[in-house]
Amino acid sequence: MSVVDIHTHIYPPSFMNLLRSRETVPYIRDGDSADSTSRLIILPGEDDASIPPASRGRPVGSNYYDISKKIEFMDTHHIDISVISLANPWLDFLEPVEAVAAARSINGEVDDICSQYPGRLFAFGTLPLSATTEDIVKEIGILSGAKYMRGVIMGTSGLGKGLDDPALDPVYAALESHQQLTFIHPHYGLPSSVFGPRASEYGHVLPLALGFPLETTIAVTRMFLSGVWDRFPDLQVLLAHSGGTLPFLAGRIESCIGHDAYLMKQGRLRNSRRTLWDVLNKNVYLDAVIYSEVGLKSAMETSGADRVMFGTDNPFFPPLDGSETEWKSVKTNYSAIKSTCANNITDAENILGANAARVLKIDT
Prior knowledge:
By secondary structure, the chain is α/β, with parallel strands linked by helices. The protein has 13 helices and 11 strands. The strands form 2 sheets. The protein has an 8-stranded parallel β-sheet with strand order 1-5-6-7-8-9-10-11. The N and C termini lie close together (8 Å).
């Protein structure tokens, strides 16, 4: 059995250079004589003048951009294949012309990186979402023919107005036509005000543990409510972090839809409408980056054990103790799969690799 990691990121050298060339969010601040650590600042709230420069954002080490470190991580954690993807903030911040050139360059670079480790690395491509839909659709066509590309990664802002934006229809049509799996990943979180005036006392826990999953939940619910899967019934998506809170809240969302007078007046509560449960079961894949047996069971019961895939979220969530070789975050996910599937080895093997190999057409 091959273990396939479908949620693992990289900042290729050219993207690192792009971020280093900037002085506004997102950017990388290289260290100085007082602190040699480079730091990645990707959210406006992290670029607060009241925060010392050496404390803003997160430290960026070679595991972010050196592919040999990725292979080393894979070997340490018994991962046979990784499907790498550019991490947030992707290319959303670039002007249209810049975004097209950057996407073409970075996708070519990542495809070349994969070629250096044939059979071990594949990738999700990056789209120039600030460009015209024509340029985005063209890039999807190019990615569909790239040897190591297996889909695309996309944030929740889409073209800037969210994933329920009708202007995205040509993009969804191209993704559906080319049978490209779309990995939907959060980045913007929730407004900092919702976390209260003491949020800074709690590190990054609130935005990462709650902001990211809720961002995904809201974005995908908006897609569903706007009829994306009615217009594109074969569009397939992979949701980061086990779909946020969708597996837990799907029933409540359906109940709210079924009791909404406005939707009823709009004629949108017809008996033949697709339910969220149906979309979750036929159009949505979930990663297993959930860190608990309870969460994994919910994901499996919502979308099916044949639609859940192992992931690590590397290089994020590294050990705080530099002496640890194996990452607690990875061991926790492995443990959740082992305990949840203790009586069904087939489910375990499917989640760990067989599902990804089947869906992404990876020969293991």
